[in-house]
Amino acid sequence: MATTKSKTSATLGAPIEVSSVSEWNSILRNAYANNQTVVADFHAEWCQPCKVIAPVYANLASQQPFTYFLRVDVDGNRTRPIAAKYSISAMPTFVVIKRPPGEEGATNATGKGVVVEKLQGADPQGLARITNTHASRAYAPPSTLQTPAAEKAKDLGNDLFKKRQYAAAVEEYSKAIALSPDSGVLYANRALGYYKWIQSKREGADSAEARNALRVKQMQDGLKVTNMQERWGKGWVRLAEALLESGCEESLENVAEDKRSEGRRVSLEGAEEALTNAIQLSEGKVKIEAQSVLENVQKAMAALP
After folding, report:
1. Fewer CB near the terminus (10 Å): N or C of the chain?
2. Catalytic residue among 28, 50, 74, 293
3. Which of 37, 263, 215 shows the shortest CA–CA distance to 135?
4. Residues 51 and 79 placed together within one structural domain of the fold
5. Domain CATH for 98
6. Is residue 4 domain-resident?
7. Is 99 in a helix, a strand, or coil?
8. pLDDT along the chain (305 residues), means of 10
9. Residue 98 carries which DSSP code?
10. 50 is catalytic
């Protein structure tokens, strides 16, 4: 039974108190690598306006979970050099730093970042404006494929999928993958195509044996897309769907009866982990749908003997 891997990233959604130059540099390197915005609050313990604005800053951090919100004590022995580097002369000062221009699509950013906004003073409206303007969004892989022929096959697959011709859609996605094998989007599309094809129980999915063969392929694509695009929430949803299929009653028919409950538990636990990753990495419709499926998974786990 396949299992998922945990998402690796710093905990976002709350301000991070930076304790040293090395920690600052480490967080910025991770932010640049993931093309995420960094907002830094340069504050001091004796600064009353800093204390007044701090809850506003924390609330903005909770609303923008894909942006790094950092706090730097300008008087700290190990953080004073950071304040000096950014010429901080008044508290609080908020600095917005982003990946250097021209490196937005790079997998390994080499620059040291660019300050794109700077705000002095405890100004809630101004702080909301600069953070909303530059906030990072949930990651999505590039959708453009390597060749026009791959694009054509993908578009045809999408059209067939909308018409519920899932077998034909999978065939077109496979053609596109052969032409553009580095596209996580294509593997996700094909995984969903297999899933819908299994559910339809037609066009070659009209027997338990055939559906189980398709479940294996669905799992392979789910694992492929999460290995290729670990930061993409929708990819984790595709893997969760595959895990749930692998633990369904029909899939476990040939498993010894005394082992079925354990097989079901393993698949549910894997789906729970994959959906948790999806929720952490997503926003909007994808996040809402992942939360709904996760609730059902957790109910099913609670009902296991």
Report:
1. C
2. 50
3. 37
4. yes
5. 3.40.30.10
6. no
7. coil
8. 40 88 93 90 97 97 94 96 95 93 46 85 97 93 92 98 98 98 97 98 96 98 96 96 96 87 94 96 94 97 91
9. E
10. yes
